[in-house]
Amino acid sequence: MSFPVLSVALSNAVVFGSYSNALDYLDPSHRSSSDRSERSPLTAVFTAGCFSAPIDLVKVRLQSQTTGNKYRGPTHCVAVILREDGVKGLFRGMGALALRDVPCYGLYFLPYEFTCRMLTEKGKRPGNDAVLVAGGVAGVVTWACATPMDVVKARLQMSGGGGRVYSGLLHCITVSVREEGVRVFFKGLLLNSVRAFPVNAVTFLSFEMLMRAMTDSSQD
């Protein structure tokens, strides 16, 4: 747990920072607008969201370790991967990760903005209740779309780390379907959805409150 706990702040900073800067570039008018319900076209929101995908190979290896003491921590895990697989081992599953994160982070912000607009009167900032609901909806929608490729990504990242070895993305998908059926791609969907609603509701509320605080202070 130490690695994801310590890295989540940096990860979220990259995700929301990349999203905000990409939206600035795609829709310069939103930078000076205080109206969160109307500020950008939803196409720009989706495109900006696609610029904000993080990586988590080390986290997956540590969380999937069930027996033995192969990895003593994040640093040791990186050292073992480099020793056994070389630098390319650190990028195992990157194809699946890109296919999961790039479109899904676009979807992450799209339902959030759409729901905020539906729950907010025109010309007003969304209230805390609207932000919480919209953030929760965004989390559930994103994980519903991301779970199939998340299963593939995790299997590829565990390949060579104690799990079954796959030659690539298509091989992993083919073998998984042949042995376990299509339902294998929806393992963990219910748990991910139950977790995603409160986590993302709080994440977006924190983001909005911080942005409001910094915007208001800069205008004083």
Automatic annotation (TrEMBL):
Short name of one Pfam family: Mito_carr
Name by which UniProt lists this protein: Solute carrier family 25 member 45
Species of origin: Anabarilius grahami
Family to which this protein belongs: Belongs to the mitochondrial carrier (TC 2.A.29) family.
SUPFAM superfamilies hit by this protein: Mitochondrial carrier
Signal peptide: none
GO cellular component: mitochondrial membrane
Molecular function per GO: transmembrane transporter activity
Stretches of the chain forming a coiled coil according to its record: none
Lineage: Eukaryota, Metazoa, Chordata, Craniata, Vertebrata
